[in-house]
Amino acid sequence: MKERLIELVARNLAKPRNSLSGLIIGHYFLRRRNRTLEENAVKLSKIEKDHTVLEIGFGPGVGLSKAVEKVQDGKGKIYGIELSLSMVNSANLFYKKYINAGKLDITYGSVTQLPYAPNTFDRIYHVNCYYFWKDMPLACTELYRVLKPNSYVVATLNLERLKLSKKKGLMKYASFDPIKYMHALESAGFENVKIEYLNGYQAIYGHIASKPQMRIIDETIVKANK
């Protein structure tokens, strides 16, 4: 019974299912577990009122609501993309007022195939997320593609909590090695990639100062050599 419960939690941590267990884990476990990390990710992103911002894997949406507060009085807008259809449906319901006001856009999709044009976002942030990316190099390339020059990505995590979860068997579908993620960011073109050890959690940053010219051929992004 215990092993079945651990397996259920592990699967729903990777991708909350459209089921009672998925809703319970997604809305109660993840909301409580991620709240501080979400709030700090938004804070560290230094979102300005006219910024266009993307959250990857928004889960129960705690970070989305905090980010929307930053752009309420400006021209900015918050976007969220999530691989769990259950979380997408819930966010569309809970944050309907922000969506109707034109301040929030919710999308069902994957970080490895972001449905946004190049150079769209001023900031990207994510929380307890990169561990579940099956193709991390491609995901980081997509982050780089959709970010504007003079922008950055922020990821927040709690390594001690992750290690404890791994011991319990709850991270069997995850790989939270921060070095692997940082190397993938650097390979994708991010600069000044670093990790900070803050008060009870960690933050990983990847900056983009400038970008080479890009041209689009058959919907494939190719870096121009000129």
Radius of gyration: 17 Å
On the 0 to 100 scale, the average pLDDT is 84
Number of helices: 8
Query: How does the overall form come out from the CA principal axes?
Result: globular
CATH topology tier name: Rossmann fold
Low-confidence runs of at least 5 consecutive residues: 8-14, 18-22, 215-226
CATH superfamily, called what?
Vaccinia Virus protein VP39
Q: What is the CATH architecture assignment?
A: 3-Layer(aba) Sandwich
Strand order of the largest sheet: 3-2-1-4-5-7-6
The main β sheet shows up as:
7 strands, mixed
Tell me how many strands there are: 9
- Count of discrete structural domains: 1
CATH class: Alpha Beta
Helix content: 40-55%
Element pattern in H and E:
HHEHEHHEEHEHHEEEE
Distance between the termini: 61 Å
As a percent range, the share of strand residues is 15-25%
* Helix-and-strand structural type: alpha/beta
Keywords: Transferase
Domain Methyltransferase type: 54-154
InterPro entries: Erg6_SMT_methyltransf, Methyltransf_11, SAM-dependent_MTases_sf
Protein name: DgyrCDS7394
